[in-house]
Amino acid sequence: DNNKVYGLISSHPAACLAAAKTFRNSISTMRLNFIRKYVVAVIKASLVSYIKDANLRGSLFNTREIHSIILLVYTNFFINYTKLLKALA
């Protein structure tokens, strides 16, 4: 089997678009049936605990989300931007 799966879990839109460009794909041409079929196994194979234990949400999994979310990997990973915002002020 020669299939390879690459992905990115990020809250940053530019990172997601850069990944799509790198993988020579666009957000609008993602193979949603392929993602639906394999995403759970890919997430569970992660070596990063907060990814491995993440909840998958969105229309691919029939969960109701705001803003028409297709796939959301909810990791509960908190990022505190307080120091960054102070440095930028």
Molecular structure report:
With 89 residues, the protein is mostly helical. It has one domain (13-88). Helix content is 38%, strand content 7%. The protein has 4 helices and 2 strands; from the N terminus they run H-H-H-E-E-H. It has a two-stranded antiparallel sheet. The longest helix is centred in the middle third of the chain and has 13 residues, at 32-44. The chain is globular and about 45 Å long.
Estimate what percentage of residues fall within beta strands.
5-15%
Euclidean distance between termini CA atoms:
52 Å
Please state the average pLDDT score. Answer: 83
The total domain count is: 1
| Helix-strand string | HHHEEH
Q: Describe the main β-sheet briefly.
A: 2 strands, antiparallel
Structural class: mainly alpha
Q: Judging from the principal axes of the Cα atoms, what is the shape?
A: globular
Q: Roughly what percent helix?
A: 25-40%
Low-pLDDT segments:
none
Number of helices: 4
* Main β-sheet, spatial strand arrangement: 1-2
Whole-angstrom Rg: 15 Å
Number of strands: 2
Would you summarize the structure shown here?
This protein has 89 residues and is mainly α. It has helices at 13-22, 32-44, 49-52, 82-88, and strands spanning 55-57, 72-74.
Topology of this structure?
Elements: H1 13-22, H2 32-44, H3 49-52, E1 55-57, E2 72-74, H4 82-88
Antiparallel strand pairs: 1-2
Characteristic key phrases:
mainly alpha
